[in-house]
Amino acid sequence: MRLRGRRPYYGWAVLAVGSLVAFSSGPGQSYVFSVFLDPMIEDTGLSRTLISSLYTAGTMASAIMVMAVSRLADRFGVRLVLIGVAFALGAACFGMAFATSGLAFIVLFATLRALGQGSMPINATLLAAQWFVRRRGLAVAIMGLGFAASNALLPPVSRLLIEAFGWREAYIALGLMVWLLVIPGAIFIVRNKPEDKGLYPDGDPNPPPGESDASAADAGPDRRRVFTSLTFWSLALPLAVPGFVVTALIFHQTSIFAENGLGPGQAAAVFVPYAIAAAVCSLGAGMFIDRFGPRLAFLINMGVMLLALALVLFVVTNPTMATIYGLVLGATGSTSQVISGTTWAHFYGRQGLGRIQGSATMVGISSAAIGPLPIAFIEGWTGSFQPGIALMMFLPVAAALTLYFLPPRPATTPATSAA
Fold this sequence. Notes:
α5 runs antiparallel to α6 (136-165) and α12 (294-314) runs antiparallel to α17. The chain has 2 domains: 11-206, Growth Hormone, Chain: A; 230-405, MFS general substrate transporter like domains (Growth Hormone, Chain: A), CATH 1.20.1250.20. The longest helix is centred in the N-terminal third of the chain and has 30 residues, at 102-131. The chain is built from 17 helices and no strands. Helix content is 76%, strand content 0%. It is mainly alpha-helical.
């Protein structure tokens, strides 16, 4: 195997493309679509209820499609699949710009959600996990900065485009952005794994512990059990809790704050400290995971999530406490993303990772899609969000206890496992 001596590790260039992939997933994410919602309703006459229903249907389509895309990445490589997904996401943006019928909106919106929310991010995560092992936590955290930048920049940019040109023209601009930021890098820079460049993960001179040249990420079909595996569910269910809780809190944030005597302006302002904490804590979490592993990071993060729930339940009644709450929620949300992005490769290795990571991502997306519903039902039944928030406090406790008392064991390799 050819090694590159003292040259900069090529994986950092691949990771830069991964960050652009994360950034470019924005057109299929909630924070961008929310900017288009009112102009779209005004122009098309579609009801808010119908579009909300499309949101749910598109989210579930994303959960299903991410499994298929991740398996294709295992079979054909991330590079080829990423090119196809990016092309399709840009085309879906163009389609939204010219859609006129209700059926077209249904199909295109589901496509935007499926590609942007699940399929683009899973490819970015798989790239980071393949090219880095010893510094995987830091790599996933750096890749995740693309999501933070997308969250901070694309909504105001989209708003400016809508005001200047119209919402349809804004979607054309977003489609072009996806193509220009992702496809050239995927074609000319991305390679599926370091072995394709004659390298080892992290630029190290030897394979990672437990791997050899013959077992480097492509040693045949992966026959490890997934949905029938206790190891899988002992990880997947706890890791799905943050998406459930954080999505529920953010989705109902304006109404929760109103119940606590705070206005919608304050509810929106919370996203500023949220974004700051997310950027800082994701990097810290990545370095912590590289040193101590994802399991300990998860246990600590469940304590931070419990603190966020306690804050919004008992003390978020003024702008100062709302800011503190935003910092804590941003910290736990971003840390959860880094933990989820590193855990599966940590326990399952690089071989057949798309199949494992995609299945776990499906569970996580489904959990996030369901998250706002129980708290809304309880609020409608009791007239208050407090009982629902109080009940959610049991979830991080249960997740932490599950990983503490059922510590997962590294899964066997595809070559030695049973079907």
